[in-house]
Design goal:
The complex is a heterodimer of chains A (466) and B (474). By secondary structure, chain A is of the alpha/beta class. Helices cover 39% and strands 17% of the residues of chain A. Chain A contains 15 helices and 16 strands. Chain A is globular. The N and C termini of chain A lie far apart (51 Å). Chain B starts with 10 loop residues before the first strand and ends in a 61-residue tail after the last strand. A 6-stranded mixed sheet of chain B has the order 2-3-1-4-5-6, with helices on both faces. In chain B, strands 9-8-10-7-11-12 form a 6-stranded mixed sheet, with helices on both faces. Helices cover 37% and strands 14% of the residues of chain B. Chain B has 474 residues and is of the alpha/beta class. The chains are: A alpha/beta (466), B alpha/beta (474). At the A-B interface, strand 4, strand 10, helix 7, strand 13 and helix 13 of A face strand 6, helix 7, helix 10, strand 9 and helix 13 of B.
Chain lengths: 466, 474
């Protein structure tokens, strides 16, 4: 049997042969994808295809599956500098058809580059793809390149929903930058008409061998056919849990804790005097916001629970919301970590996302642990999550689509509430500081991350504490 | 449990479908899964009620839709069953009742039956979730009949052909009045999932809450392809030898021997496309290394975290933390090590493993004692009380094969000696407990919510948190 060596950054055991890492062993990230997956959106304009593409891409990237979306409309905008009118989309407009086909092929080419050359795992092909013929072309493309193809169709006939979509995302589109709202709406409705006659929805009989999900009426019902593998199963589950009902998510940390004051990480301390003040301010803030049916979630650590207690409303405790486990470094100051574990301290600065504390966790582990929270946040409406610095960074990265390198350095100061409201294709953030002073716990990445660095250079970014 | 159920209303799952469509199979499997994740669930099978009412089954004639006397009996059975469902949900604090509903219904009849039920059980219709199984593949149906009907109490003496014949005629009786769930018109306001051809296709309508969403996800991941799951622990470790729990030690010499024996065993089994999973602790990885095949490491398969007790022996724990030691023996499932985990936490952590095991074919999972107990409890439907005491000795493989409504287990000892790491529940009396701890604080299922001022009955969205257990602990 081969010898095992422990990777110093991630603390994982890897086999090696003559000093070199060997095969046969794989890390189970959250998702193991064997061959790349091509997700193909299907549906008339203003049915939420781009909304779903972007959201799905954001989710998959967050859980660690490299994903990229390819919006054919964007390719068209790049090629045809100025949009004139819906007539471009008329089914008998030869010139228009030629350009649109060209754009689709250019996008597919980029898909191939991403999946085959750039180590992408999932590509989301965002276009109407409303004819069986077009879908066949794409399916063949997938087969030729060894991709699994999964269709996501959005079907909606509710005129109110369509009108709302147009207002949310079409009026502000580059296509309509010079038009009035009425002009834009009228043109867009005519654009939709151009597609309707040739629209062939995914059919239970004709398309019975394809893998797909058909979403009806913004999630009232779903038809799911031939889910082939783990990633498709996760995608289906995710799509079935998201909704578009307006709501807000409030993220904040527990009030300042006794250990925060001393510059110590982890542990299970109670709130400091100022922390308790914050809890009261939070209660007042929540009251003033007048939020309908607000759910309150905490971790199972004392400091978040104490904070929630001050609100005087029912709350739920989630163990998975507990702060990152710092293992042997629990309850230490950064100075102590530098003194006792200088190598660990340096490794962490080198790759803070993947770095796992000895006998503890990494941000990467934290993301996997938090996935059920994200899923449930998607299901819920108004929620206040009272958690911890590393946890809040992970949740925030999901909502604001921040990549792994930035995630561990997102600013989540104490006594500050982040109010997130979904809008158009993204998320509006409001930062509300509740006017109760607290220590700063944010440690920026220092310039020198070398393991041979002198202590002062390691500690230069440590925030002040008692 | 990790779902906040004290303020949530219960759910009634109603199975729908012609005979031999897998309703009982799905009911039992779903019930097993829900109970394992901590949602108290029970099955109410109309066939069982009918068999009690009509002592001896004669033939399919009983099921003819024009057999008035039989109809009366079947209606009575349905009412009795509903009464029991009501008792379970309301009085016994069950959360979910899965009811095998006969397929005979007219639109009006069922709706009025349901509103009768809603009135009596005060269960809003949104808390009823239908699971319909539709299948038109005659091979699947024939296989079902052979698998489970031939051995049914209805057919004690008959030979296969007669059974098949009678049962197919029984199905025909139902077909006359069968009205599948109709998402476009009559049933568009109901919450349901329609499973078509054993999971090839699904239609999902109006999922209302967290638990229905979990049920849908589960049903979409299970399959009925024959396969085998092998569960075993890592080979004996250095820490095992000295009685230390937890840690991340390597294999002892005997542990390495076991790994070799495991390799030989796996080769002899000649398993098609076997996946091998380990934890991220050295001892399981070392064991897998000997197999010479590709394996996947899962952090969530790591052994239970014993917190402050990590790397101690039981004797050391008893000496240093006598109260903790006693508490653990009182309620081993719920007990959480200080700074560590409980078996209950472990189950929550392992849920994605179970889900992926359901999706997969042949898998060998090399894990740890507590982890293996949790997985085994899922497959063998063991309660939370039994789970922490299931026997999972070192150097022993459990081979699990799904069969009929359950799971066949074969125990294979690989003839390499190892220490025994199993600790039975000692016969303590509660006088060992400090007076500040009363057993009543340790609850079985969901944690009781903190008594807050007003707990309004809101339309319920289940979620995965749990309400605080009472006054903060020591």
């Amino acid at each position: 049997a081969r010898e095992l060596t422990q990777n110093p950054l991630q603390k994982t055991w890897e086999p090696y042969d003559n000093g070199l890492p060997a095969g046969h062993s794989a890390q189970r990230g959250v998702c193991m994808t064997n061959c790349p997956t091509l997700i193909v959106m299907v549906g008339l304009p203003a049915r939420g295809k781009t909304y779903i593409s972007k959201k799905l891409t954001r989710y998959l990237n967050w859980i660690g599956v490299p994903t990229k979306e390819f919006n054919v409309g964007q390719y068209r905008r790049d090629l045809v500098k100025k949009y004139k009118s819906f007539e471009f989309f008329l089914p008998d407009n030869e010139e228009g058809l030629k350009i649109r086909k060209q754009c689709a092929l250019a996008a597919l080419n980029d898909v191939r580059q991403y999946l085959s050359d750039e180590n992408g795992h999932v590509a989301v092909f965002d276009a109407t793809n409303t004819t069986r013929e077009r879908r066949e072309t794409i399916y063949k493309f997938g087969e030729e390149n060894g991709y699994k193809t999964f269709f996501v169709e959005s079907v909606c006939v509710d005129p109110e929903v369509i009108a709302a979509n147009i207002v949310q995302v079409k009026l502000g589109s580059p296509d309509y930058v010079d038009c009035s709202n009425d002009e834009a709406t009228e043109d867009f409705m005519k654009r939709i008409e151009c597609y309707k006659n040739s629209y062939e929805t995914l059919d239970e009989t004709l398309d019975k061998d394809l893998s797909y999900i058909k979403i009806m009426d913004v999630g009232r019902s779903y038809l799911v056919n031939r889910v082939m593998d783990h990633i498709q199963s996760r995608i289906v589950y995710y799509l079935m849990n998201i909704h578009v009902t307006p709501r807000s998510i409030y993220l904040c940390r527990h009030g300042e804790s006794e250990l925060n004051l001393k510059g110590r990480i982890g542990g299970d301390p109670g709130l400091s005097v100022r922390g308790k003040e914050f809890a009261k301010s939070l209660a007042q803030f929540i009251n003033e916001q007048n939020i309908k049916d607000l759910k309150v979630w905490t971790s199972q650590m004392k400091r978040t629970i104490q904070t929630a207690e001050a609100l005087g409303v029912p709350y739920e405790q989630w163990k998975v919301l507990n702060e990152i486990d710092a293992g042997v470094c629990e309850e230490m100051t950064y100075e102590e970590i530098q003194e006792n574990y200088p190598l660990e301290f340096a490794l962490r600065d080198q790759d803070k996302y993947r770095y796992r504390y000895p006998k503890g966790e990494s941000y990467e582990d934290l993301v996997q642990r938090l996935e059920p929270v994200i899923m449930e946040l998607e299901r819920q409406e108004n929620v206040l999550v009272i958690c911890h610095q590393a946890v809040m960074r992970c949740l925030l990265a999901y909502f604001l689509d921040k990549p792994a390198e930035q995630l561990p350095y997102l600013k989540c100061p104490l006594h500050t509430v982040l109010k997130l409201t979904p809008v158009a294709y993204g998320c509006k953030v409001e930062s509300i500081f509740l006017n109760v002073e607290a220590v700063n716990t944010h440690r920026d990445k220092p310039e020198n991350v070398d393991i041979s660095r002198p202590p002062e250079e390691a500690l230069v970014t440590v925030p002040a504490h008692q | 449990a990790w779902a906040s159920y004290m303020t949530n209303s219960p759910t009634l799952i109603v199975m729908v479908g012609l005979p031999a469509r897998g309703k009982t199979y799905v009911s039992k499997k779903l019930t097993r899964y829900l109970n394992w994740i901590g949602v108290p669930t029970r099955v109410f099978n109309l066939g069982v009620y009918r068999r009690e009412a009509v002592k001896s089954y004669k033939s399919y004639d009983f099921f003819r839709h024009d057999n008035k006397e039989a109809m009366e009996i079947r209606k009575q059975c349905a009412l009795v069953a509903l009464e029991d469902v009501k008792a379970y949900l309301l009085e016994e604090c069950g959360q979910i009742a899965v009811r095998l509903f006969s397929t005979k219904r007219t639109c009006g009849g069922f709706v009025s039956g349901l509103s009768w039920f809603s009135k009596h059980v005060s269960l809003p219709s949104s808390q009823v979730f239908f699971v319909e199984s539709v299948c038109d593949d005659p091979e699947v149906i024939a296989a079902n009949i052979l698998e489970v009907k031939v051995s049914s109490p209805d057919y004690p003496e008959r030979n296969r052909e007669n059974v098949m014949d009678d049962f197919l005629k029984r199905i025909e009786c139902y077909k006359v009045t069968y009205q599948p769930l109709d998402p476009d018109q009559y049933d568009k306001d109901l919450s349901f999932i329609k499973v078509i051809n054993v999971g090839q296709r699904f239609l999902v309508n109006r999922v209302q809450d967290y638990i229905q969403s979990k049920i849908v996800y589960y049903l979409m991941n299970i399959h009925v392809q024959p396969r085998t799951i092998y569960l075993c622990r890592h080979g004996e470790s250095e820490y095992n030898l000295v009685g230390k729990i937890g840690g991340d030690s390597g294999l002892s010499p005997r542990g390495k021997q076991f790994a070799q024996a495991l390799k030989k065993f796996i080769e002899e089994q000649e398993i098609v496309e076997l996946k091998v999973w380990t934890s991220q602790l050295k001892r399981t990885i070392q064991t897998a290394e000997s197999l010479g095949v590709t394996y996947e490491q899962w952090k969530i398969l790591n052994e239970i975290d014993a917190g402050v007790c990590e790397e101690m022996t039981y004797a050391e724990i008893e000496a240093k933390y006598p109260d903790e030691f006693a508490l653990r023996d009182q309620e081993k499932y719920l007990y959480r090590y200080p700074g560590g985990e409980s078996y209950q936490d472990l189950v929550q952590r392992l849920e994605p493993v179970i889900m992926e095991l359901e999706r997969q074919g042949n898998v060998l999972v090399i894990s740890h004692q507590a982890v293996m107990r949790c997985l085994l409890a899922y497959f063998l439907d063991k309660s939370a009380d039994e789970l922490p005491y299931l026997r999972c000795p070192l150097h022993t493989i459990l081979k699990l094969t799904p069969v009929a409504y359950g799971c066949k287990v074969e125990t294979i000892t690989l003839n390499v000696e190892a220490v025994n790491t199993h600790r039975d529940k000692p016969t303590l009396n509660s006088s060992h407990l400090p007076t500040s701890q009363s057993p009543g604080r340790m609850r079985r299922s969901s944690l009781t919510p903190r008594a807050s001022a007003a707990v309004e009955k809101r339309p319920r969205h289940h979620s995965v948190g749990s309400s605080p257990p009472g006054p903060p602990g020591p």
